[in-house]
Amino acid sequence: MKAKTISYVALFTALTAIGAFIKIPIPYIPFTLQILAVYLAGALLGPRLGLLSQLCYVLIGLIGVPVFAEGGGFGYIFKPTFGYLLGYILGAYVNGWLINRFNLSTIRSIFFANLASLLTVYLFGCIWLYGAMKWVVETPLSIYQTFFYGFLLPAPGDLLLCVLCAIIIQQVRPRIARFTKMKELKHPWAKPTL
């Protein structure tokens, strides 16, 4: 990988870590700004590099660097929130893939790509939350409670960030594509679709 590519990946890894420390405590799943970095990484770096930035974030946390919302270390995999971190990895890929594959350039279409990314994160998060509460914490949640605490409660804030990021991506992505030579960032913005 070129130094410039490594720098971009490291930047979004760092942004995800910073987002973990800006949080609002709510039951079971704290609301953080990490999802901002997930949307931006996928959209601005492309699917593969976006995924790589989030994978680096998770691996750094698992080796013990306290970059997660509640610390770090390999034992974090037993926490009810770990599924959301796994969701970030695939969520960044989904976002970048949709934007690149369908040439998304309007705020509305980018919003739906962000939404698909968010739903991916919540799918992994809720499944892990349910399993961890049942078999690790041994304080089982019902499917409804899992859906309520794992999705309905934190979703409004994340949806707001979904809209905000769609606006940012629509404005920033064409400018970044002009200044980079990375293949994944090149994009035919001249032909708006969807």
TrEMBL record:
It comes from the Bacteria. The chain crosses the membrane at residues 5-22, 28-45, 52-69, 81-99, 111-131, 143-169. The keyword Transmembrane helix applies. It is a multi-pass membrane protein. GO terms for molecular function: biotin transmembrane transporter activity. It is found in: Cell membrane. GO terms for cellular component: plasma membrane. It holds the Pfam family BioY. InterPro entries: BioY. Keywords: Cell membrane, Membrane, Transmembrane, Transmembrane helix, Transport. PANTHER family: BIOTIN TRANSPORTER BIOY. Belongs to the BioY family. This is Biotin transporter.
